Each structure stands twice: as C-alpha cells, then as structure tokens.
User: What shape does this take?
Amino acid sequence: MRGNVVLALAMACLAAPLWADEPDLVIADFEGETYGAWKVTGEAFGPGPARGTLPNQMHVEGFEGKGLVNSFFHGDRTTGTLTSPEFTIQRKFMNFLIGGGKHENQTCINLIVDGKTVRTQTGPNDKAGGAERLEWQAWDVSELNGKTATLQIVDTATGGWGHINVDHILQSNTRRGAQLTRRELVIHQDYLLLPVKNGAAKRRMKFLVDGKNVREFEIELAEQKADFIVAADVRAYRDQALTIEVPLPYGSNALTAIQTSAVLPRPVDGDERRPRFHFTSHRGWLNDPNGLVYFQGEWHLFYQHNPYGWNWGNMHWGHAVSRDLLKWQELPTALYPREWGDWAFSGSAVVDHQDTSGFKTGEEPALVAAYTSTGRGECIAFSNDRGRTWTEYDKNPVVKHAGRDPKIIWHEPTERWVMAVYDEPAGAERGIAFYSSPDLKSWTFTSRIPGFYECPDLFPLGIDGDQAKLQWILYGADGKYLVGDFDGKEFHGTSPRQQVWHGNFYAAQTFSDAPRGRRVQIGWANGITFPGQPFNQQMTIPVELTLKSGAAGPQMRAWPVEEVSKRREWRTVATTLGADGLQLESGKSISLLAGDGQLDLFDLT
Assistant: This one.
C-alpha cells in the first residue's frame, strides 16, 4: 500500500510543470534584419524590425538591444499584422515589452490557443501627451502549460497613437512588469516629498481623495537612492486621507520613501550653481513663459512646468512673481491639468479692469488667463487674489480649433478683447487666427494670417517712441515678426517679415499692463540644461522692446531692462594687486573673469 502512494506521488510530480530553476525561453528578441519565420501582412511593420525611432515619431525608448517591432512604418496610417510560428507554452509567465497605442483589438499583442485569443494587451497611450516608452507586461499562463500557441501583433488603427511597439517576448517563471500599489496618508502638512531618479521608468502616479482622482502625473520614482526630491503641494487636502496609487515592480517598497513636509525640500549638493539672474524653477523642468502680466506692483511670470521631473512632461503652469524683474519668488503651481492627457499648455493673462467677464468678486479687478487644454481647446481661468489661486471657467473651452497658445489683449479702439492663437488646420498653411470677444467668454472668428509657428504675441509700439506713429507687431515663437496695421479684426503687414531673435531665445512673450507703456519681454532659453541639478532650463534676462526707424523700414530692438543696470555696476580695475592689496568700495563683491586677467566689480546688494 505504501509503495502505491509513493508511485502516485511520483506520477503527480511528473505531470505537474517543473517551474523551479528553469531558464527563460526567448520567443523573439527582434534583433535580426528580418522577422524570420514570423508572418507579415500589410505595411505597418515594414520590411523588418525597426532600429528604434522611425521618421516623424517621438523618441522611442525602453526596448532592449538594437531592434524592436514598431508599426509606425510610414506613420499611423499604415496597418497590418505580425504572427509568430507555433510554440509550446512551457513556463508560468509570458513577459514582453510593449508601448504605443491603447486601442482595444486594434493596437495589441494577442496570445492565441486553439484558434481563440486567450490573452491580449494594448499599449498605454490613447491621448495626446503620452510617451513612446516600452514597459514590461506579463501574462500568467500557468494553466496553459503544454498547449501549442501563436502570438499575433496587431495594428489596425489609423488615427492618433495608431501603432504598437513590442520587444523581447520571453517565457519565464519570474513575472516582470508592475502591479498597482497603494499607500494612504492623512495630510497634516503642506507638501508630499517624492524621490526622483533620472532615467528610471516613468510611472503614472495618482492622488485619490474619497475615491476621486484629484491628481495624475508621470514620475521617474526612485526605487533606491534618489537624484533629487520634488514636492507636491497638497494643502488643498489638509486633514483628509489621501491615497497614493502607482504601478510598481513586484516587491517594490518605493512608496515607503514618500514623506510629508511643512517646507520645500532643501537644496542638493551643487544647487549653489543655480543662475542668479535667469529664472529657474525650484525643482523640475520649465519651458515657454506664459501669462506675463503686471498687477499691483508685481510682475507675474507663469511658465510651462513639469513639477515632478527633470525632463519635459506633465505640463502645468508654474508661477513666480517679482518686483524688479530679477529677483523672483516662486509661488505654488497655478494651473493643473484637469485629467491625464489634458495638459495645461501655453497661453497669456490680462487684467480685466472693466470687469467685462463678471469674474470680479472683491475690490480689485480679476486676473484672467487663457491657455490651451490639450484635450479640449482654448480655455480661461480667473483669479481674485492677485494670481495666488485660480478658478476654471465652467463653460470651457471658449474656442475649439486645431491649434494652441492663445494670446489675449484688450483692443482699445474697438473696446473688445482680441485672441491671437496659433492655428494649424488640416490642409492649410499653419498661421495665426484672430478672434474677438466682448467679455472673454464668447469668441467670434475674424481672420487668419499664414506663415507663423506657435506662441503668438500681438502688441503696439510707437516708432522711435512716438505714440503718434503707432505700429502693431505680430510675433511668433521663433522670433519672426511683422510690422503692420491691426484694426481689431485683421492684421496687414506693411513691411517684409523680420527676425529679432535666433537660436535659444524661443517662445518669448511680453507683459500685459506693464507700467509707463513699457514693452517687456521674456523668452525661454531653450536647450540650456543643468545636468546633475534638481532643475532644468531657464528663462532669458528680461528685455525691453522698442521700434526704431530705418532705411528699410521700422525694426524692433531689444535691450536688457533698466533694472539690470540698477543691480549690477561694472568697473574695470588693475590686473595686478599692489603691495597694499586691492581696496574695494563698501558693499561691493568681486568676480574673476577668465581670459583677459581683469577683475570686475559688481553690486549685489
């Protein structure tokens, strides 16, 4: 009897899958020049595995080796399938890297057994603003052990994100990928401190309060040692239970490193290298200046901002104020994305002195911002506390079109608001569209002018300072501009197109309501990076624009604002020190300049 029991146990062991200590089985790594025995239909998958990013595609990352399946061949319009030879399922999990579009049954990888799809997985993206990054996913196929199967990679979608990326398909007894992980905190302090590791996998993190998703963003969350710490402002949820939700690798304890704090994180080593006179955000990425407006003695600088990482992404409106255009106080984030993929892109701001919008609630006029919601169109928000907090207009969007970056101004002769907005309709040359409104809420299309790209600005300047010789300037992100006439509806250039800036000076905007009729401009110093720092990119030094007459017609000139000369006083002194040393005036600091051996003094008081 005992022998029969032993035999039965032995037979049971032989029948069960032997999961332990078995090496991974590679189904496909797509490192060859062709797809080999895989069957290809249609055009989407090209002649063979892609070598990374294809023409006109965002940067593709996260794949292993040199090759991957990338169905962006000739763009999103192409379709097709890629089907594997038959194989036997011999491990507990099937792991694979996947990216691209999130279209059920259209951009996906399918596991087929006995002619039926038994597992399927799409890419992660179905809205603008996603990333071309492949991440590990896994299927538990333990109950299918011993079955014969095929894999089919499908691309039948032709619109946005109409492609699929796949790499390194493995059979394994170890599950790769991520599981949804949660941690609950009761908020008693102002900030959540989140550790960031540059280059780590981007994880989509959510904050939930009472089960409602109140924040959602991507973050390169540090699993171990962080490169720097970012702060999420959670004052709005004080004394409430907030749940952090994020997909993390199996076994990860990264959420335990998140802490609450009453103050912003302290500077990291090297933060003393932060520019003194060019604005940089306390943490994270910045680009286009937005919503430049002067109000009640403060210059307001809003800007495109990723509060949660060193690279572009998660577009919010950051906010800083200054009383002298050089020393800036960073304030809490002004505009948040309404939901994932609906980013707060570039725009402008004005003071509604006459309360045409009806947004005013106190003694002071309301500030009104216009911005692009990438998921909806051109939207507006208003503030009644000098820009410290903002309320979104409940009937947004106010303009829907193919474009972005609204610039709003008050046109005094017609007593109406004007919106100049970048416009890129299908089949037409990109340019700037003009809309008119009596109240900042209802807008009527009036005209369009071709030949401009992104972030328009529209403002008047008097030739040689003479307001009787007023001309209008229409300006694009790349520094190209037209001098001409504007009647509140149409712009007519009166001289050839010119350019005031080149290269890194990009997406510049001018301040609305600047005192003394000044036309002050700030640009994004595009491409000025700060490796190893917790911040990235900077703004330019503010400049004042004027319009000067010339033989070829009026031309714009730019000069650093007068506040710069008040802050820095330069003098050249002896190149060698005498026996008695160098006598410095009280309150001066000294800086050695490389190259000519001279010393320069400048006032930092």
Notes: Residues 1-19, 569-605 have pLDDT under 50 and may be disordered. The two ends are 97 Å apart (CA to CA). The CA atoms of residues 568 and 603 lie 5 Å apart. The longest strand covers residues 284-295.
